[in-house]
Specification:
The chain has 149 residues and is mainly beta. Helix content is 11%, strand content 50%. Strands 1-10-5-4-3 form a 5-stranded antiparallel β-sheet, with helices on one face. The longest helix is centred in the N-terminal third of the chain and has 11 residues, at 11-21. The two termini are 26 Å apart.
């Protein structure tokens, strides 16, 4: 496992990060919106796609942090932010440019229709691996996603 660190400043960069976080498990309590700092941080358990590509039969998971800076607003749909222990599955990330660049919206899509929309001054995202997930089993059934998978 390498210590993956990726930055995104445009939609193409964000597509690379989106591929790395596809199917990541996110507990709602690990979504932290720091409005005064204009920052959203999400702790997640992502699949180790590098293991998959190297031929491992059951890839492990990695603990990672996904950070968005210069966030003006954070809105959610179909996510109960009070259910801190509820788990979601992150499907992907998309950027929609505003009529006047460099601003726009980042949309994080989760299982069962859950979404976060971040209105941003500009696209500034980082994905950083923090280490292996000792209990993460990529082969776990969707029922382990709190019934949301």
């Amino acid at each position: 496992m390498g210590d993956l660190k990726l930055l995104a400043f445009d939609p193409d960069d964000l597509a690379v990060i989106s591929a790395h976080v596809q199917d990541a498990r996110v507990e709602i309590g690990d979504i932290v919106w720091r409005q005064a700092d204009k920052r959203l941080v999400i702790g997640l358990h992502r699949l180790d796609w590098e293991q998959t590509l190297s031929g491992e039969p059951v890839p492990g998971r990695l603990i990672a942090a996904l950070r968005f800076d210069r966030v003006l607003a954070c809105k959610s749909r179909a996510i109960d932010i009070t259910a801190k222990d509820e788990a979601l599955e992150l499907i992907g990330l998309e950027f929609y440019a505003a009529p006047e660049p460099p601003g726009g919206s980042v949309v994080l899509m989760f299982s069962r229709g859950g979404m976060l929309r971040l209105d941003v001054e500009c696209l500034e995202c980082a994905l950083t691996d923090l280490g292996p997930d000792p209990i993460g089993d990529a082969g776990a059934p969707p029922d382990d996603l709190g019934g949301l998978g």
